[in-house]
Amino acid sequence: MCHRPATDHSQNLYLGLHLGVERFEAILIDADLQVRFTTVVRYDVDLPEYDTVLGVSRNAEPDEFLVSPVMYVKALDMLLNSLATLGADLHKVVAVAGAAHHYGTVFWSEMGFRRLCGLNSLSRLHEQLNEAAFVPVASPSWVVRSAIRQCYEMEEDVGGSMTMVKVTGSKCFGRLAGPQIRKLNEESPAEYERTVRISLMSSFLSSMLVGSIGSIDYSDGSGMNLLDIGRKTWSKSCLGACAPDLKARLMNPIASNRLQGRIADYFVDRWQFRPDCMVVSATGSSASMLSGLNLPENVLVLLLSTSDKLLMSFEERPQLDDGFVMCHPTNADGYIGLILFRNGSAVRESVCDQLANGDWTQFNEMLSATPMGNNGNIEVRLDEMEYTPEAKGTLRWDAHIDEMSMEALHGRQQFEDLQTEARAVIEGQIMHRCVVALDAGFKIQKDTKIIALGKSSRNPQILQIVADVFNAPVYTHDDPQITLLGAAYRARYAFYEYREANCNCQSCRIRRGRQPKLSYAQFFRHLPDKLRLAAVPTKGCEVIYSPLIDRCRNMCRVLAAGTNIDESRFRYE
Q1: Cβ-based neighbours of 544, under 8 Å, separated by 6 or more
Q2: Sorting pLDDT into bands at 50, 70 and 90, what band is 492?
Q3: Does residue 238 contact residue 226 with C-beta atoms inside 8 Å?
Q4: 229: closest CA among 197, 238, 100?
Q5: Beta carbons within 10 angstroms of residue 255's beta carbon
Q6: Backbone angles phi, psi at 317, to 5 degrees
Q7: How far apart are CA 143 and CA 573, in angstroms?
Q8: 0.85 cut: is pTM over it?
Q9: Residues 151-186: pLDDT tens digits?
Q10: Measured between alpha carbons, how far is 46 from 44 in angstroms, rounded to an integer?
Q11: CB neighbour list of residue 271: distance below 8 Å, 6 or more residues apart
Q12: What confidence score (pLDDT) does residue 363 get?
């Protein structure tokens, strides 16, 4: 018989945190998953003493984009103070989960480690975890491009870029933790020697919450060029190619649903959290976004922003030579495919400026005035060196160009009218995204859905083109705080998994019946549907776009073949 007293969980609250690039956000949801409180700290505005622009330091050297971890420490205290000021009863919070931007590395000093483990509630957090807690004082941030040489050397040391992809899920990039750690060891060996622990931004957030060094979770650890994502352990060859004695500084990685521990006494004494409040492993922003959407299979997320992004879920590991494969945060056996595109909204805004003087209403009228498929006129426009393919330039083909001819190498100088040019650029962008998704192994089927997010997802003409090119309905999401909600949902599920469904005495098993513990997807299957249908495929679109998509794929190959790539720099940015 179970001797646990019956507990009413209806008054519980669940805290989600998002340590973002430009802001630190918090959300509190109740047992019915309704939002009770939200608050935000904007670094540029609310923490002017750190002199940041878009969240990074203005005083760094060229190609060095740094941020002070102390700024994040102070922002966390400000965030909790704001929640308390708004009237949130933090004693009702039973679980906390977090998310953080991925491209950042924190190096802990011995003093920082000791202070973290002995936080004093009589002092503010940033007064204890100050500059002396970190080595170096400023940490590499998400836009850093200064570890190009280290990327090349790491790939060479493990047997080449394809070996790195096979083991860790991606080629080396200068913004990832592995190359940054190697750079610190090579250029400042004394500072590396003084480093006792290394955190990603996500595990840094977990560390602050539990008052001890938090482990890196599988999902966020997938993007370090260090984790063997098949075995879910640190790769010996990658560790060896990075820095000496690195494994001792990283701790063992853990599953994304694992608990890091209970919240530190500092938060119990200072903010009246419950002593038994659970802290779930924080993960990366993209993984948290998928957790917030809780998508079924055959759903593709298309983020139309400064840099466009494709997010896809896979039951089996895909082969993405030019993207990122990460462990799934809520499906222990699944994977996430993440592909970035440098030529996103900047290209769309540039063509709108050129053709319509920046007037989007006029530009959308141009799109509406041209037929689906644009009479075979396609433009692949890559103003910046693209990741997939590795190419830069503009190529225009009309319906009369033979793909095998010399004429195809240079294409047309321009199209006949502005309307044709407008649609050619937008259709070319969307077809390029479709080509990459298909080549990554994503299968477009009858039940496929496209979820469009980001700034351009508010443009109905662009969304109609997405629906027609992919031959699938396009949805937008009503809540802009998806990543933050994903953290709160993970906190709610952790309470269910470790507290509500964790008693295995005979009485509780009888009460539950034979129903096994619910998976994350099953637990949230009754979530309110916040997806809004924005566009449906036009009849006959598949017949028109199927050959054009193949043609776009060949145009990308032609551009790549004719691009002079500086291998020493671009590939690793």
Answers
A1: 372, 373, 468
A2: very high
A3: yes
A4: 238
A5: 15
A6: -65, 125
A7: 9
A8: yes
A9: 989 999 999 999 999 999 999 988 889 999 999 999
A10: 6
A11: 80, 84, 90
A12: 97
